[in-house]
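Hi Y.,

Following your request, here is the sequence exactly as I used it, all 205 residues.
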Amino acid sequence: MLFSTVAVHLCAALGFAAGAFGAGFNDLNDFAKDLGTVGAKVDPPLVSFDSLGNMNLVISLINKYRVAHQAPVVNWNSSLAIYAANAAYPCNFRQSHGPYGEILAGSTTVNNPEWFVWFVYGENTSYNFKNPDVNDPRTKHFTQLVWAGTKQVGCAFASGCPELKYQLWCEFFPKGNTGSQLAYRNNVKPADKTKEIPGMPPTNV
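Below is the corresponding structure, written out as tokens. Let me know if you'd prefer a different format.
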């Protein structure tokens, strides 16, 4: 069964999500120097992010879900992407406990970052919009994905980890999943049925 190969881990007792890219920069350290920031270690796994290709597709998908839930679009932040790449590097697939909202998704076979975004969005079916459970771990990825107060995202995609070969890490700022039920109602809104809600992307690219 397909879903048995997928692991999703919430990196936020307080919130996180979104996607990126199997190709672009072979040396993140060189790319990071161009940005004036510290780069990610890239050996043994390939950890990559870029401003073209899959990243644009993933950010577009995230923003379609956000717009459908009456939230403003998020913008790409390269510093968040570098943080995500450094967090992904050890291949531990564990929350980084950093200052950002964070979503982790991994699979032994699925290699399409867009699919991971769609998969975590599926948590919306367990979310109670009228009476949200602010401590429900089953919906933390979804709520971060569409959290209205979040403005920026950066992601990294790891390929080559020994257990979960493909891993998507996304960091969000400001982080969501914080506050009372009122905060959740204000930031996680029901879908506007007049807006597009994308279906399942291909599992592999």
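Residues 2-187 form a domain with the Pathogenesis-related Protein p14a fold (CATH 3.40.33.10).

Thanks again,
Q.
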